[in-house]
């Protein structure tokens, strides 16, 4: 486990399993913090390769997408955080593969339901190799003004509201991801804000513990006080009690262990998290709160009083000259996505294309107002489709039949017969008759109508050499060359 700061303003991560929303939120946070480089160097998405287009502020950037972990690490050797959005089925295997990469230092596991025996193996490997695991079942964490993991702290509005775009003086660690969003708000209200916040996740065996992070915060000079939100169940808070008793933490700790209401139930209750179940008196919220209080932490009498306790501790530090509250900065404005702005009625956008024939705005394209499927249901054909597309109405059956006969008769000319087609197109473009003819004539080539050129060449050659027609035809026959331009089947005399 690292003993100091985990992240900085230049930290870059690899993101496993493409999830557009959390990735875009990380990039929006980067922009808000005026980071120079995006916090995501690459994405790993088994089964697809290439790049994904995302926004970095107003600019569109292409983030490389790799098939596998090894290839991604090789391509981005400076990315040392691995954010794992794999499902619970594959999270352990991909996390272990990431931990084994020499470039990866921190692995964050989002999935809930990772088997405990797998997590234990990950934790053992990480400890032995001096790496950090955050999670499983975590939303992640944030270093204010520097680096954010996935969905931590919610929407951009919430992040701005909680002033997470610039560092404050409080280190915060929580078991719960949802409650950490609540506490970011509380801490922003009564202090100069968060320096770093981590949610360790609600599993019974988290990759890193509350006390691991509190001890780390103790070594970060910018962190002046620590806020801890524990939970009933497990004994992690007692490691913190021990560290306090042993004098290993010399910064004020304000703590609350939630789940005091468990006593109101007659039988044991499993709360939302896998680990939130008290297996005995020692694991109850009351016992842990008391132990923390006895060890010197500031522990309020209820959750409602938590905010007041944080405020009071912060103000004491300011009075004692230990904190000079950070100066407020104005974050840049994140450009709103066009679709979101349109939906909220803030902007309107002109259409780029208007088509008077095919309407593709709905679930099913319509030709002149007639849904395609109804054409199929009515047993109508190509002639009817053309009458809708070209004449914008359903023509009588004899007309659509006529169109179909024209198509049937012309069909054999295939796609290379473009002379007449070009003449028609040029004429539809409103050009004069000479231009129309020229456009058609210039298309005559070896694949259509070009025989006439060859015929002219041979006839001129024969004339220049003074051959009679008989000598010319006979000579060609002997050489095995067919005279071009002669012998079209339609012109054969029967
Ligand atoms: C963990 C989490 C991000 C996983 O995302 P997900 O959308 O459930 O999973 P995906 O759809 O991406 O993947 C599911 C499976 O489908 C597979 N899959 C997805 N698209 C596929 C495709 N087109 N073809 C084949 N397989 C596909 C994936 O490979 C994956 O396989 P795996 O389970 O063997 O790994 C998501 O479940 C989650 O956010 N859970 C909540 C976690 C949480 O609450 N954490 C605590 C916060 S406080």
DSSP helical segment count: 18
The name of the CATH superfamily of the largest domain reads Succinyl-CoA synthetase domains
Helix % is 25-40%
E-strand count: 16
- CATH fold field value of the largest domain: Rossmann fold
Unreliable runs: none
List the helices and strands and how they pair.
Blueprint: E1 13-16, H1 20-32, E2 40-44, E3 50-56, E4 59-66, H2 69-75, E5 81-84, H3 91-99, E6 106-109, H4 116-128, E7 132-134, E8 141-143, E9 147-148, H5 156-161, E10 170-174, H6 177-190, E11 194-199, H7 210-218, E12 225-231, H8 236-245, E13 253-258, H9 285-294, H10 306-319, H11 338-343, E14 358-359, E15 366-367, E16 370-371, H12 372-377, H13 382-391, H14 397-410, H15 419-428, H16 433-441, H17 451-464, H18 469-479
Parallel strand pairs: 1-2, 1-5, 2-4, 5-6, 6-7, 10-11, 10-12, 12-13
Antiparallel strand pairs: 3-4, 8-9, 8-11, 14-15, 15-16
The protein binds coenzyme A.
Describe this structure in words.
The chain is an alpha/beta fold. It folds into three domains: 13-319, Rossmann fold (3-Layer(aba) Sandwich); 358-413, no CATH class; 451-491, no CATH class. Helices cover 37% and strands 14% of the residues. The chain is built from 18 helices and 16 strands. It has a seven-stranded mixed beta sheet, sandwiched between helices. The protein has a six-stranded mixed beta sheet with strand order 9-8-11-10-12-13, with helices on both faces. α15 (419-428) packs antiparallel against α16. The relative contact order is 0.07. Bound molecules: coenzyme A (COA). Residues 17, 85-87, 89-90, 110-112, 137-139, 177-178 line the site of coenzyme A.
């Amino acid at each position: 486990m690292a003993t100091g700061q985990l992240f900085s303003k230049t930290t870059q991560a690899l993101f496993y399993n493409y999830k557009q929303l959390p990735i875009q939120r990380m990039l929006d946070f980067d922009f808000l913090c005026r980071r120079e480089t995006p916090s995501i160097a690459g994405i790993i998405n088994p089964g697809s390769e290439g790049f994904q287009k995302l926004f970095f502020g107003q600019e569109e950037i292409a983030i490389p997408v790799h098939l596998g972990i090894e290839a991604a690490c090789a391509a981005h050797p400076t990315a040392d955080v691995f954010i794992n959005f794999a499902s619970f089925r594959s999270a352990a295997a991909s996390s272990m593969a990431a931990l084994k990469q020499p470039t990866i230092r921190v692995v964050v596991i989002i999935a809930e339901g990772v088997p405990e025996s797998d997590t234990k193996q990950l934790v053992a490997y990480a400890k032995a190799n001096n790496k950090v695991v955050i999670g499983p079942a975590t939303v992640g964490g944030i270093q204010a003004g520097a680096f954010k993991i996935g969905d931590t702290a919610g929407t951009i509005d919430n992040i701005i509201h909680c002033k997470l775009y610039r560092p404050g003086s409080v280190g915060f660690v929580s078991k719960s991801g949802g409650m950490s969003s609540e506490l970011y708000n509380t801490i922003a209200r009564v202090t100069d804000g968060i320096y770093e916040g981590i949610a360790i996740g609600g599993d019974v065996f988290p990759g890193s513990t509350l006390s691991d992070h509190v001890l780390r915060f103790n070594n970060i000079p910018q962190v002046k006080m620590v806020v801890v939100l524990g939970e009933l169940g497990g004994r992690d808070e007692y490691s913190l009690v021990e560290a306090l008793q042993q004098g290993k933490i010399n910064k004020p700790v304000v703590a609350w262990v939630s789940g005091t209401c468990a006593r109101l139930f007659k039988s044991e209750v499993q709360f939302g998290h896998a680990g939130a179940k008290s297996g005995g008196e020692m694991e109850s919220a009351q016992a842990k709160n008391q132990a923390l209080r006895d060890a010197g932490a500031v522990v309020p009498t209820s959750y409602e009083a938590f905010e007041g306790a944080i405020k009071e501790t912060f103000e004491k530090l300011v009075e004692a000259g230990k904190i000079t509250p950070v100066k407020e900065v104005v974050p840049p404005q994140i450009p709103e996505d066009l679709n979101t702005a349109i939906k909220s009625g803030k902007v309107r956008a002109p259409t780029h294309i208007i088509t008077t024939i095919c309407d593709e705005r709905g679930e099913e394209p319509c030709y002149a107002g007639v849904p395609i499927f109804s054409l199929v249901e009515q047993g109508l054909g190509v002639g009817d489709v053309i009458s809708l597309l070209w004449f914008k109405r359903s023509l009588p059956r004899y007309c659509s039949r006529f169109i179909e006969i024209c198509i049937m008769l012309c069909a054999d000319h295939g796609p290379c017969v473009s002379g007449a087609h070009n003449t028609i197109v040029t004429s539809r473009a409103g050009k004069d008759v000479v231009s129309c003819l020229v456009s058609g004539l210039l298309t005559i080539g070896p694949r259509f109508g070009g025989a006439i050129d060859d015929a002219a060449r041979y006839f001129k050659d024969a004339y220049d050499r003074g051959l009679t027609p008989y000598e010319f035809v006979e000579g060609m026959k002997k050489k095995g060359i067919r005279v071009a331009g002669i012998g079209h089947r339609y012109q054969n005399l029967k």
